[in-house]
Design brief:
alpha+beta; seven-stranded antiparallel sheet; six-stranded antiparallel sheet; 23 strands
Length: about 575
């Protein structure tokens, strides 16, 4: 076995390209030595004249000559090893021949034999920059030399440059160099969040706080782990949301099936009610017709009896008129001169339309049945929308200075005096309106408001962009969907023009329901559990609950946002 001294000397006479003892060694201007044939072939296969070791680039091909001293030393080593002298081309041919003699194996068993142009699992791996024949896979890359080395060439490199920094091989080592100073990017500028070289810290980044890239890498890796954890959490949340949506779809299918079954039941009941009303109406008409017919028959019979009596009297009168017996005539004249007792038929009529109003009354009774069914459906509907109850509070930044809000922001009353409040863009300065703090742009939402004895108010929702300064018209044309109680004008809705509503009994507690996707705003009597009115429209932007309260005389006249409870047994907040 060769001694360590001999090994060190032998490494110094090895060509870093062919990995064998020098054959006709030459020196290039950067000081590195190679076989004449090896460096010639290397430059032929490259577009630049570059040193394979230090990557120093020359503008033209350097003039080279054989280093005779190094050649003699190399020849001595070859004689000591007793090996024949081979040219680089012969080495390559021998390597190929040996490779052809190898048994057939799978590509992954001999990855070093696959050239960089091959396709397969190594097609995108980094090749050795020093190999001139079939390029082997690089195992390390030097950040100083900017060169990737296979396992054999790495041994030569590490023997000569023990302090060079090695990393896992990458495709573009030039990207790790400063474009301006051609130095290694080994520092990170905290201010500009970029990598810099040492010379950058003396110029453009002189007063900036810089740290080694390894330290920044450690910090960023901690952040990366945190971000990765957050992303994983987001993934889990979205997976859960997917499951929730799928579950909701299944519930929606069940709900739709129940709705279909309920609708079939309701309409079947209505059809039966119509058919029953129709049958009862036909029976009533037929019975009336029979009664009329019997009464007419009795009249005819009575008339026929009177006709018979009158015909008899007429015969007697005719016989008396033709007699010449004076005594007989005078004896019977008094009894025949008067009419037989008959009925006055001048006012007697058989009406041909005895069923006047019968159909209307039947339909009215059917309407009552339909109204009862609608009330039942409205109560069921209210139970469903109450599931979407939200916590609504008042926004003091929007309240008109005449309005006073409670500390919990759930009640509003007209103070009767002007408050000195900042005139912000959000505040209503003329009309006594305040908005809710919460806004709605999607989903379904429901809340209830106690109106009490107040008789001058508006409730509903308003677009976020409604005008808040000067006089305001509360209507859908101006971005308001509202139910109102106007003093002396009963109830109305804010359509254009307004539609008056007949509501009995007087409203005490109003439910407001908003479905942003469907474009629906509905109002309910939460005490009577009945439907009042529904708007169908498109909103186009965020909606806010809004409250209009005109001047009142009693401090108890307030509008109060109430928790949604079972209003069948509770009529107060």
């Amino acid at each position: 076995m060769a001694s360590p001294t001999n090994m060190l000397v032998e490494e110094q006479v090895h060509c870093s390209i062919c990995l064998d003892v020098f054959t006709n060694p030459v020196s290039i201007p950067c000081g590195h030595n190679f076989c004449m044939a090896c460096i010639g072939n290397y430059w032929k296969s490259s577009a630049l004249f570059m040193c394979p070791m230090c990557k120093k680039t020359f503008f033209k091909q350097p003039d080279i000559s054989i280093n005779t001293v190094l050649r003699e030393i190399a020849e001595q080593f070859k004689e000591m090893r007793g090996k024949p002298i081979l040219k680089p081309q012969q080495n390559q041919q021998q390597w190929v021949a040996e490779a052809e003699e190898l048994p057939e194996v799978l590509p992954e068993e001999v990855p070093e034999l696959i050239p960089p142009t091959a396709s397969g699992p190594w097609a995108h791996e980094v090749s050795c920059d020093v190999c001139t024949g079939p390029q082997q896979r690089a195992v390390k890359a030097c950040l100083v030399c900017l060169t990737s080395y296979c396992e054999e060439h790495l041994k030569t490199h590490t023997a000569r440059f023990t302090k060079h920094k090695l990393i896992e091989p990458v495709q573009n080592l030039e990207d790790r160099m400063c474009k301006k100073h051609e130095r290694l990017l080994e520092l990170f500028c905290k201010k500009d969040q970029i990598m810099v070289c040492v010379l950058c810290t003396e110029m453009d980044h002189r007063a900036h706080y810089t740290v080694p890239v390894e330290r920044e890498w450690t910090e960023k890796k901690v952040q990366l782990r945190k971000t990765e954890s957050e992303v994983q959490q987001m993934i889990q949340e979205r997976l859960k949301k997917v499951e929730d949506i799928k579950h909701c779809v299944e519930l929606n299918k069940s709900s739709a099936q129940r709705e279909i079954e309920d609708s079939m039941q309701v309409f079947s009941d209505l059809v039966r009610a119509v058919q029953k009303a129709q049958a009862e109406l036909v029976l009533a008409i037929e019975e009336k017709q029979r009664e009329t017919e019997h009464w007419a028959e009795s009249l005819i019979q009575e008339l026929e009896q009177e006709i018979t009596a009158l015909k008899t009297r007429n015969s007697e009168l005719d016989h008396l008129a033709h007699t010449d017996d004076h005594i007989h005539f005078l004896q019977n004249f008094p009894s025949l001169i008067t009419h037989p007792r008959t009925k006055n038929w001048s006012e007697t009529h058989v009406h041909t339309d005895h069923c006047v109003g019968t159909i209307r009354r039947a339909v009215s009774r059917l309407e009552e049945t339909l109204t009862e069914e609608i009330e039942k459906l409205a109560e069921t509907e209210l139970k469903k929308v109450q599931k979407y109850s939200v916590d609504v509070t008042l926004d003091p930044d929007t309240a008109n200075p005449w309005l006073q809000l409670s500390e919990d922001r759930r009640q509003v009353r007209h103070l009767g005096a002007w408050q000195d409040l900042p005139d912000t863009p959000e505040r209503f300065d003329t009309v006594v309106i305040t908005l809710g703090r919460e806004s709605f742009s999607a989903g379904r939402h429901y809340w209830e408001v106690q109106v009490g004895e107040k008789d001058d108010w508006y409730l509903g929702v308003a677009r976020a962009s409604v005008n808040r300064k000067g006089r305001i018209a509360v209507s859908t044309a101006h971005g308001y969907w509202a139910l109102a109680m106007k003093k002396g004008q009963e109830y109305r809705v804010s359509t254009s023009p307004p539609v008056l509503l007949s509501i009995e009994p007087r409203l005490r507690r109003v439910g407001v329901y908003v479905d942003c996707e469907e474009g629906q705003v509905s109002f309910y009597d939460a005490v009577a559990r009945s439907h009042i009115y529904t708007f169908m429209d498109s909103f186009g932007e965020k909606l806010f609950p809004f409250f209009y309260l005109y001047c009142c005389d009693k401090a108890s006249d307030t509008l109060s946002i109430c928790p949604v409870v079972d209003t069948m047994h509770s009529k107060q907040c």
